Amino acid sequence: MRSGFVRDDSGDILWYCLPFEVGLLESMATQLIELVDAPAWSEDPLERWANERDAAPLDRDDPALARLFPEASRNSEEASEFRRLMEGELRTQKERDAATVLAALTPAEGRVDPEVSIPVLEQNPWLRTLNAMRLVLGARLGIDDEKDAELVDDLDPGDERAPVADVYHWIGYVQSLLLDAITA
Amino acid sequence: MTEQPGGGTAIQERAEEQHLGQEPWVCIVWNDPVNTMQYVTYVFQTHFGFTKEKATRLMLEVHNEGRSAVAMGTKDEMERDVTAMQAYGLWATLEPAA
Fold first, then answer.
1. Which of A57, A68, A73, B69 is most buried, by CB atoms within 10 Å?
2. CATH class of the domain at B8-96
3. Least CB–CB distance from B34: residue in A82, A86, A143
């Protein structure tokens, strides 16, 4: 049985995965799209600008959002200018990346031997989305420094955070296999 | 690890392209306990077009010293680079070049 990420001569990748992996990533991608709550997209730049202006501000007291959208400067005026200019675009980018992953997973849903196609142009959106999932889970696990990260690596199986830590480690593993396939 | 000047060549190349009278800015990437070394190296190679060696050197500088200036240019250019780094999930900021 084939398994893992297999790259063909054109650079496209097929991921032979398990049904529960498809379900887990679908759920994570859907939650990520809800979390970033991107302003409504429009082809019309003026309308897009108005949508960005009217979008609900990000709740930066949420450590996951604070980590996904870090302040771009220690100078508060610069940081606020960057938010005004770039935050809408970043929210839209993260939503589009996650939507790309979701769309790739949909045909594999419910299949006994799922195959997920990841063409060259979708590989960076996949990597960014897997990474965003890790950042969100890392924030939920309270990982602020290297010591916290080591503690999460060695959690007692009975710890209430263990199931989240398992998903966090699994997404890191998938991201690393995908990177291996891309750079092989 | 031996000390190496962060950013090296690319910073000099970009600096020479500066328009007269514009203050240079830098894009800083900060160390972070979640992003993997493999991923950060890949992002530097992919976005900036650095060789694997150079991307690895900058990644190690981030990892060992807590931060690294990975690009230099006009403020607009650095806003684009910081946006791209944040889209990849790296903890990036911009500041005027010292």
1. A68
2. alpha beta
3. A143
